[in-house]
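Slide 14.
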Amino acid sequence: HREPKFSKAVVSTQSTGETDKPPIPNRVQLIRASTSTLEICWIPVATADAYLLQIQRLDNSDVHEWYDVAVVKGNSLVVSHHHSKPSSEEVDENKPIERLELSPGTTYRFRIAAINACGRGEFSEPAAFKTCVPGFPGAPSSIRISKGNDGAHLAWDPPANSNGNISEYSVYLAIKNSQSTESPSSLAFVLVYRGDSPSCTVKTTSLQNAHVDQTNKPAIIFRIAAKNEKGYGPATQVRWLQDTKTSSNKRPVDKMS
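Slide 15: predicted structure.
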């Protein structure tokens, strides 16, 4: 991909004093979803002055281009549109930038790179989130996972846009499958909880059959979805990092969708 031009971005570099490009932003997470917007956030990078966001639409096409969304100074953004030309194409700065709005019920992937006076750092691992289908609830958010003696304790916040009363939640666990690959879209999932409480415990016996994703750091994958009168909305997919070098009961969570 070409290096993006930041001439129109407000990036402060006068008092930074950096000597290296910033590191990769971590934990790209979904705050809330609607039919036409996705609000995402990530952990701030100490040496970053701004962040470049790019988006990719996941559909049946064989070609999935990345598109610029914006250059921002904060560590969160409500995304409602993106540039109409792929980031790999040169942009004519003499012409106004055309933008495309997000579509309902569509999965998008995001990646984020930090920027400072030394340039742009590497992009984050892509994280996928889905816009809502009209009438259905949004995805649960703010997933928390901790390890207990009896298994993994999960808790989450209800969807910001429930479109009615939430009657139940379902939690699924990715399990070992000799036919599966490392791609999240081809993993096999099994139901481990269904109920009206926004929390549950996944027993150790179930976790022993979990698929450990190795695409980045070793992690167990869960999916959590909410149901209203019309049915189930999109699931939030979360990676529970498995750090074998520490005995801490609190392990970080990486949001995926």
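Speaker note: The radius of gyration is 19 Å.
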